[in-house]
Design goal:
Blueprint (H helix, E strand, L loop, with lengths): L1 H6 L6 H17 L9 E4 L8 E4 L4 H4 L3 H14 L5 E7 L2 E6 L1 H11 L14 E5 L11 H19 L3 E8 L4 H13 L5 H4 L3 H25 L4 H7 L1 H14 L3 H25 L5 E4 H4 L4 H9 L3 E3 L5 E4 L7 E5 L7 H16 L3 E7 L3 H14 L7 E6 L2 E3 L14 H19 L7 H21 L7 E3 L12 H17 L14 H11 L1 H11 L3 H20 L8 H23 L10
Parallel strand pairs: 5-6, 5-11, 6-7, 11-12, 13-14
Antiparallel strand pairs: 1-2, 2-4, 3-4, 8-9, 9-10
Helix pairs in contact: 2-4, 5-20, 6-21, 7-9, 7-11, 9-10, 9-12, 15-16, 17-18, 19-22, 19-23, 20-22, 20-23, 21-22, 22-23
The chain binds one RNA strand of 72 nucleotides through helix 16, helix 17, strand 14, helix 19 and helix 22.
RNA sequence: GGUCCCGUAGUUCAAUGGAUAGAAUAGAAGUUUCCUAAACUUUAGAUCCAAGUUCGAUUCUUGGCGGGACCA
């Protein structure tokens, strides 16, 4: 009877149910209008009796009661008028702790334990584009790019689970002075070498010449300075820099030789990127190349001039005045008529909208671009670009090293490929030491090492609030114990092991009181849909990582306290099997949203 | 010079204005004839400083100190 009743509540979270019930009780008790914003519902701290807590302080004035009176009256009314949803209550200081009936939790478990899609929402018929990764083609990917890639991928997955149609896109920064630097250095120092003859990945090969350029550039600056030239002039007038500038002009003029070299070297880089993306599991529905988009937005400049959003200075350059918005004046077209990044970006934003009619456009870009993105959105809005309001910058903090800044041009970076390789090697070592999967085939082992190594790395980079910069110590390897991916994977593998051995008997009705360890997991499981929604709203995968870890921890504690296969009764065994299965389903889909695979055994 | 962000255990991270500030790791002490010990249990350890708002501040406001990013 009760089970049936509670299953009709299943669409609503328990927090929501408590909110509504509390509003009803307050309104009838004190004959005033209350809303759920008048008070707060928290999880009850484990040291107190109860599941959820109504914080009473904010209600005292309006109700005209003391905490003790209000708590008693509200508690009694909640118990009386909610069909047994609440079992009991207690009041400590200004906190009304409510115990939710076991039947509610049992009903929730029964309804959902076998549902692999628990927590995901139906289609909302909205399209969102997530632009991420966006590499330069003059160097290989490093740790910072990995954070970007994992964030972009994960946010896309989270949004999919919330019912969005998601398009993953990438803008490849394949032109400009930085690419010319690698090209010049290759011409000067490579003697025609190609990645194949050196057995290098193409992106690493090209990156080597980018570093080489900077070494040579520095040397020439020193020479010119020694000859008496001021350092700033020396930077510009170093012969290698002059040659690079000349090459950039030749590229823009379409010089066939330069274009051929550019095509060849970019080709090397792409073949290298392909390998890295495949290894880390990144992919894109749409790839834009800046060499195709850099002329976009010029018509927008004209439109801006017509609308008087932009103005022309005497030298012919075009500007926008953002001082009324608390920002500066910003250049949108140089005096020589070439456009700047912001102009292209507006052009591309418009193109994305035209092609896909996207409702939201998320840009995963480092926080060093906060100002740029703010200006981009503002200008787009002032111009009346269709997609302007949809622009959303997912700004993430830089990854810093304990040993100093990562600078590609100085070669002081943690390389993405190296790190991936190291993680996989470490997972291999751990696995071999433990010796639990000696019957695996070589292919199965390879998959397992990948799953665990990448799991550790992705979890490590995603467990931190994206907005905050994070610090990485290259001397210490990423952990496989504690608050880590492998911890969650291990919990999952243990559950799967049990599920392989035991069998479900769904004919058994389950009706008994829940032990603390049993209920704890169901209470945690109930929060999963809300966590996903929150993560989507905040574009924050760390919410999922933290949740999944806590659920795994709760389960591990349950596992060590209570036996499943040797439960006190068949009833209890079936209950615990359901709890285990629901946990496994949630862990798997939560980790999937972080881009992390789950091993059936490890 | 201007704008913005960040200061929490030794370290890396949590905490929609709420109860005794949570974890992980490193440290100390335990758990394996029993479903996978990559686990579990116990223990010690922190809000940069100073005012203010509030019944209540890690959270909000102001000022300092320290770190970072961006703009010209």
């Amino acid at each position: 009877m009760l089970l049936l009743l509670f299953s009709s509540f299943a669409a609503m979270s328990i927090v929501h149910l408590i909110q509504e019930a509390t509003v009803r009780s307050l309104t009838s008790l004190y004959e005033q209008t209350f809303t759920e914003k008048d008070f707060q519902i928290n999880l009850t701290k484990p040291e107190f009796e109860g599941d959820y807590t109504v914080v009473l302080f904010s209600l005292l004035k309006k109700a005209g009661k003391s905490t003790a009176e209000l708590g008693e009256e509200l508690g009694k009314d909640l118990i009386k008028n909610n069909h047994g949803l609440f079992k009991e209550y207690n009041i400590i200081k200004g906190f009304l702790n409510l115990s939710v009936a076991d039947d509610f939790w049992l009903s929730l478990l029964k309804e959902n334990f076998h549902n692999a899609g628990y927590g995901s929402q139906a289609s909302n018929s909205k399209t969102v584009m997530v632009e991420y990764s966006s590499p330069n083609t003059n160097k290989p990917l490093h740790l910072g790019h990995l954070r970007n890639n994992f964030l972009g991928w994960s946010v896309a997955e989270i949004l999919k689970n919330c019912g969005y149609r998601v398009l993953k896109s990438c803008i490849v920064n394949d032109r400009g002075i930085h690419i010319c630097k690698s090209m010049i250095a290759w011409q000067l120092f490579a003697d025609g070498a190609a990645p194949e003859n050196e057995g290098m990945k193409g992106d690493h090969f090209v990156g080597k010449y980018y570093v080489k350029f900077n070494e040579e550039h520095k040397k020439q600056i020193a020479e010119l300075s020694a000859a008496g030239m001021p350092e700033k002039d020396a930077e510009k007038n170093a012969p290698i820099m002059l040659a690079t500038q000349k090459m950039l002009q030749a590229w823009e003029a379409g010089d066939p030789e330069v274009i051929a070299l550019w095509t060849k070297m970019n080709g090397w880089v792409y073949s290298g990127f392909d390998v890295t993306y495949k290894n880390i599991g990144s992919d894109f529905d749409e790839t834009y190349f800046e060499s195709n988009t850099y002329l976009l937005g010029k018509d927008i400049v004209q439109k801006g001039l017509d609308k008087n959003v932009f103005y022309k200075k005497e030298d012919g350059s075009v500007w926008i005045d953002l001082t009324p918005d608390g920002l500066d004046e910003k250049l949108v077209l140089r005096k020589d008529g070439t456009s700047v990044y912001i102009t292209q970006d507006i052009g591309l934003a418009q193109q994305k909208y035209d092609e896909y009619k996207i409702d939201e456009s998320i840009y995963v870009i480092g926080d060093e671009q906060n100002y740029h993105m703010k200006v981009l959105k503002l200008i787009a809005q002032k111009l009346g670009v269709d997609s302007a309001d949809a622009i959303h910058h997912l700004s993430y903090g830089m990854v810093e090293l304990t040993t100093g800044k990562m600078k590609s041009r100085e070669g002081t970076v943690v390389d993405a490929d190296d790190l991936v390789e190291e993680m996989i090697a470490t997972s291999k070592r751990h696995t071999e030491e433990l010796g639990k999967v000696k019957d695996f085939s070589p292919e199965e082992l390879k998959d397992l090492y990948n799953t665990i190594g990448l799991g550790a790395m992705k979890f490590y980079l995603l467990r931190v609030d994206p907005k905050k910069r994070m610090i990485f110590n290259p001397e210490e390897s990423i952990d496989f114990h504690g608050f880590t991916g492998p911890f969650v994977q291990y919990t999952y593998a243990r559950i799967k092991s049990i599920l392989r051995k035991e069998h479900f008997d769904e004919t058994k009705p389950i009706s008994h009181s829940l032990l603390k360890n049993e209920k704890g997991i169901i209470v945690a499981a109930e929060q999963f849909p809300a966590v996903i929604s929150e993560a989507a709203k905040e574009l924050d995968p760390s919410k999922v990582a933290n949740y999944v870890f806590n659920l795994a921890k709760t389960f591990n504690s349950f596992y060590s306290e209570l036996s499943i296969s040797k439960a006190e009764s068949e009833d209890k065994k079936q209950l615990r099997l359901q709890i285990a299965m629901m946990t496994a389903n949630i862990l798997k889909s939560g980790m999937q949203m972080l881009g992390i695979q789950m091993p059936e055994r490890m």
